[in-house]
Amino acid sequence: MKFKTLDAIALVLVIIGGLNWLLVAISPDYNLVTMLFGSMAWLVSTVYVLVGLSAIYLIVVWPKLGRN
Question: In the 3-class helix/strand/coil scheme, how is 8-51 assigned residue by residue?
């Protein structure tokens, strides 16, 4: 299975989510997603849902990535 665009998008979203969690762990007042989208709670929630769905997607396709 080749690395597809959807795989790359999912990987980027999971990396962003992981880095956001790191920043929250270092300083609870520093949340990158909230800082970027501030008062738009629906957009913040959408980003979190996309990060979560990306993680589930990568769990499913991870064994297939890299195989020819």
Answer: HHHHHHHHHHHHHHHHHHHCCCCCHHHHHHCCCHHHHHHHHHHH
| 14: Cα separation from own chain's centroid | 3
For residues 53 and 43, the answer to whether their CB atoms sit within 8 Å is no
Separation CA 8–CA 51 (nearest Å) = 13
> H or E segment at 56?
helix 41-61
Joined together, the tokens standing for residue 35 give: 């800082």
Domain assignments of the chain as residue spans, ordered by start: 5-62
| pLDDT of 68 above 60 | no
Check pLDDT > 60 for residue 1: no
Model-wide pTM > 0.85: no
